[in-house]
Amino acid sequence: MSKEEYSKLLQSAFDNGIPFINITEFYSYALIPQGDKWLEIAYDFGEKSIDEKKEIDGASAFFKLCEEVEKSMALELKVFYLNKWKEFKKGLSGSEGDKLKSCIKELTTNSNVYSDELPVVFNKEDLGKILSKL
């Protein structure tokens, strides 16, 4: 799958809610809301291709988000306050789908609590960070 397809998916990512989109040196990872499901998609910058693209439920998306934040972003960043992130997660209640939305909102509105350089796309205007690497 092509960079054109990934670009198109990203440009419509904010149409149905707030997605989680991060960018690392080697890839971009996104969870895009689609009603009660989420589109999980990963794009490899070196291969210039979509590595993964599948529809998943809210519970699976929540666990995927946590894995991405706690492993990939924690390793990618020089400073990432993982303990603060885990403390935030402990205070969450409701379904995993609700927790997912709360986590995405937290990362996009309070990113400086976790890192000064959180590699997350906060809004549609920030998509240029990724599109320029395609």
Listing every helix as H and every strand as E from the N terminus to the C terminus, the arrangement reads: HEEEEHHHH
Supply Rg.
14 Å
| Count of the separate structural domains | 1
Low-confidence stretches: none
Strand content: 15-25%
Euclidean distance between termini CA atoms: 12 Å
Write down the overall mean pLDDT.
94
DSSP, total strands = 4
Count helical runs. Answer: 5
What level of helicity do the residues show? 40-55%
- State the major sheet: 4 strands, antiparallel
Biggest sheet strand order reads 1-2-3-4
Shape: globular
Structural class: alpha+beta
Describe this structure in words.
- Strands 1-2-3-4 form a four-stranded antiparallel beta sheet, sandwiched between helices.
- The protein has one domain (3-131).
- A hairpin with a 4-residue loop joins strand 3 and strand 4 (49-57).
- 41% of the residues lie in helices and 22% in strands.
- The mean pLDDT is 94.
- The two termini are 12 Å apart.
- It has 134 residues and is of the alpha+beta class.
- Helix 2 (58-76) runs parallel beside helix 4.
